[in-house]
Write a structure and sequence with these properties.
Blueprint lengths: L4 H9 L7 H15 L7 H16 L5 H18 L4 H21 L1
Helix pairs in contact: 1-5, 2-3, 3-4, 4-5
């Protein structure tokens, strides 16, 4: 799992309208890089959804509803992919919850 879990949680926990676009793009790129060759359950789905999210955020007219849906879907996928137990499992579960909450706040 990538090491930017807490950074991502912190970014998504605040006011999403104040999230710097460059910081958000850098986080997405970092996750995409980490997931590029990952072979664990759910990695390809997470990668595809992050690519879709990046396209929405890079768009001239981002669709808030689509972004909301993607954040919720990413959270659900992360929740399914979370390892059982241990610190990493707890962090990924917290990230999953934060993603779903952020998506619901945008809805």
């Amino acid at each position: 799992m990538p090491t930017d879990i807490q950074t991502t949680i912190d970014a998504l926990s605040g006011d999403l309208s104040k999230l710097d676009a460059g910081d958000g793009a850098a986080l997405i790129e970092s996750w995409l890089s980490d997931l590029e060759n990952a072979d664990w359950r759910g990695a390809k789905t997470l990668h595809a959804d992050l690519v879709s999210l990046r396209h929405q955020l890079d768009s001239d007219a981002p669709d808030a509803g689509r972004i909301s849906d993607l954040l919720v879907k990413l959270g659900e996928s992360a929740e399914r992919a979370a390892p059982d137990g241990g610190q990493v499992g707890e962090q990924v579960t917290k990230l999953a919850s934060t993603l779903m909450d952020a998506g619901k706040r945008l809805a």
